[in-house]
UniProtKB/TrEMBL annotation:
Keyword Lipid metabolism tagged: no
Domain of life (superkingdom): Bacteria
Pfam families: adh_short
One MF term in the entry's GO annotations: oxidoreductase activity
Keywords: Oxidoreductase
Similarity section: Belongs to the short-chain dehydrogenases/reductases (SDR) family.
Gene3D superfamilies: NAD(P)-binding Rossmann-like Domain (3.40.50.720)
Claim: Oxidoreductase is one of the keywords in the record: yes
Organism: Aquabacterium soli
The protein's name in its UniProt record: SDR family oxidoreductase
Length: 263
């Protein structure tokens, strides 16, 4: 009797880092549920991966800025009869206007997408992982979470939440065989800057600051399998993180675990 393939859920899977996670996990033999708004992109990717790697690729077109989106995802998983072994919370966006000048609908949408949906999906899926004594969760944060605060940078505040939440959950889940890793990439070649309207700014940055999605995802997957709670990919980003953050991440993690009030 063959062993069932592990099942992976990837949000923001239609392009960039999300699509790269899909390609690398499919190559490792995972069945996939790809989630994003652009259903045509998802289906094209699913067809490519199922044909190349003989894995099952399902797609769900849903806008994760909607408050009912996570429930929609879970209902789709129930319909498929799937439990998720590998969760990648990758979906994200960033505004480029001042906080007070940005409509609340946009501000709330960013928070819903990158904080609430991420947290809700993790909360709904993690208990099954804990029960089965195996699971891997990657939450995509950012190198911005490690940088000093900047004017109007809601994105940095949100990604700081993702970083701290991921470390806290890793402390809770790891004794049950579930690893949680916050991925903190720097500048990565993708459509992100085109969608956000910041391509002109990005084009003026030195080439040494940039990474390819393949390298970022490869390092992230190795980190979560090794049980590392934080992954800063690339030596340039590691150097920048060390300069920007006086307390080393590994030391902060150990101190937080040692002073756990729920012990």
């Amino acid at each position: 009797m063959s062993t069932p393939r592990r099942k992976a859920l990837i949000t923001g899977a239609s392009a960039g880092i999300g699509a790269t996670f899909a390609r690398q996990l499919a190559a490792q033999g995972h069945d996939l549920l790809l989630v994003a708004r652009r259903g045509d992109r998802l289906q094209s990717l699913a067809d490519e991966l199922s044909g190349r790697h003989q894995v099952q690729c399902e797609v769900l077109s849903v806008d994760l800025t909607r408050v009912d989106a996570s429930a929609t995802v879970m209902a789709h998983l129930d319909k498929l009869g799937w439990h998720i072994d590998f969760l990648v919370n990758n979906a994200g966006l960033s505004g480029h206007t001042k906080f007070a000048q940005t409509p609340w609908s946009q501000v709330g949408g960013e928070m819903q997408l990158m904080m609430t949906a991420l947290t809700e999906l993790t909360h709904r899926i993690a208990p099954g992982m804990i029960e089965r004594r195996w699971g891997r969760i990657i939450n995509v944060s950012s190198l911005a979470a490690l940088s000093p605060p900047g004017e109007s940078l809601l994105y940095s505040a949100i990604k700081s939440y993702v970083l701290v939440l991921s470390q806290s959950l890793d402390m809770e889940f790891k004794p049950h065989g579930v690893h949680v890793t916050a991925l903190c990439p720097g500048f990565t070649h993708s459509e992100f800057h085109d969608v956000m309207g910041t391509r002109n700014i990005a084009n003026h940055l030195p080439g040494i600051l940039w990474q390819q999605p393949d390298a970022v995802v490869k390092e992230a997957l190795a980190a979560v399998m090794a049980g590392k709670p934080v992954c800063v990919p690339g030596w340039v980003n590691k150097l920048l993180a060390a300069i920007m953050r006086p307390t080393p991440l590994w030391l902060g993690y150990r101190l937080g675990k040692a002073f756990n009030p729920f012990k």
